[in-house]
Design a protein that fits this description.
Length: about 325
């Protein structure tokens, strides 16, 4: 584990991370606690000038071109539950959509309570797959779209599409009012953005419209313009727990999977990260705190990212590469 004593915590990682011949000064913009990985890291990060992220272009295209010119590692964040606690906001928005379309199963209004939504969010990635899973299990509903339950795949998809569109609009309204970042996540993201050898991205299973609203409000356009890759669920054919979104992000960045670290909050996201062969840090939520993340392969399980910095994440990976030829991640909750 990293920084096992209080005295070690006070040491600058930039003075211990590499041999003296390779130590570099990168100026006041690079925090002393960031590990330096390359002699070419002697200047601030060079970001592409012809970026996809123009002022209002995020909703039009999610995947950005390379921003980090010489990435050695990548730090990839999930959005819902990691950057911002949104799952309860999603639940409320779904129920508003069900109410709008008078969705009923055998005469009883569909309403997802907290316990049931916990099951959904920890089983199925993406909004439309959640609804299909629920309706396939409990029966397809009647609604103002159709007085009788849809019996064809086309009619079922039409209902789910309408519900998802309505849910997204409700969700965006709620996000605008109450969404805020979880402890430490933006600070860690800022630190990684400033580092010339750390690529940074956001990979969410959420529908693009709702996702864009969250990241625009909570992450902000300035940060988004400096990320290497930003992807929503619409950008891949297979949703989490399928690893497709992380595999695509890795390909865009140009790194092997063992050099990538994912921050997730659920078993679904953890399975996606491990399926892609990546290290995974779990920052659990109130609805996922009792899950056995270690059994599914989590490398680190934390309450949040408060007091976590790049050195605590990437220093052990770098050192293990020098010793055993492959990176490993070890960060205890007490090391936060």
């Amino acid at each position: 584990s990293l920084l096992s004593s209080s005295n070690e915590r006070k040491l600058s990682l930039s003075s211990r991370f590499m041999p003296s011949a390779q130590r570099l000064s990168v100026g006041s913009r690079i925090h002393q606690n960031i590990p330096l990985l390359s002699k070419k890291a002697s200047s601030s990060p060079q970001r592409c000038k012809d970026r996809v992220f123009r002022k209002n272009s995020l909703r039009d295209r999610i995947i950005s071109p390379h921003a980090t010119q010489e990435p050695h590692f990548a730090l990839l964040f999930d959005c819902d539950g990691v950057i911002v606690l949104t799952e309860e906001l999603h639940r409320i928005a779904y129920n508003k959509a069900f109410q709008k379309f008078n969705v009923q199963i055998e005469g009883k209004a569909v309403d997802w309570n907290v316990e049931h939504y916990d099951v959904l969010q920890n089983t199925i990635g993406g909004g439309k797959p959640k609804m299909k899973w629920h309706f396939n299990k409990y029966g397809w509903p009647s609604s103002s779209v159709s007085a009788t339950p849809p019996s064809t795949e086309e009619a079922q998809q039409d209902l789910v599409d309408k519900l998802q569109d309505a849910k997204t609009e409700f969700y965006k309204e709620i996000v605008e009012e109450v969404a805020t970042a979880r402890p430490g996540v933006l600070e860690l993201m800022d630190e990684a953005i400033k580092h010339p050898n750390i690529a940074v991205g956001i990979c969410s299973a959420s529908t693009k419209e709702g996702f864009v609203k969250v990241v625009n409000k909570v992450v902000g356009q300035e940060r988004l313009s400096n990320l290497d890759v930003v992807m929503a669920g619409d950008d891949v054919k297979a949703k989490k727990p399928d690893p497709m979104i992380y595999n695509l992000a890795r390909e865009r960045i140009g790194l092997s999977s063992e050099m990538c670290v994912v921050v997730e909050d659920s078993i679904v996201g953890l399975k996606a990260a491990k399926g892609a062969g990546m290290k995974c840090i779990i920052t659990y939520t109130s609805s996922t705190k009792d899950q056995d993340f270690k059994a599914v392969g989590a490398d680190v399980v934390l309450e949040d990212l408060g007091n976590v910095n790049l050195g605590k994440i990437f220093k052990p990976m770098y050192e293990s590469m020098e010793v055993q030829g492959s990176p490993s991640l070890s960060l205890r909750d007490s090391d936060k």
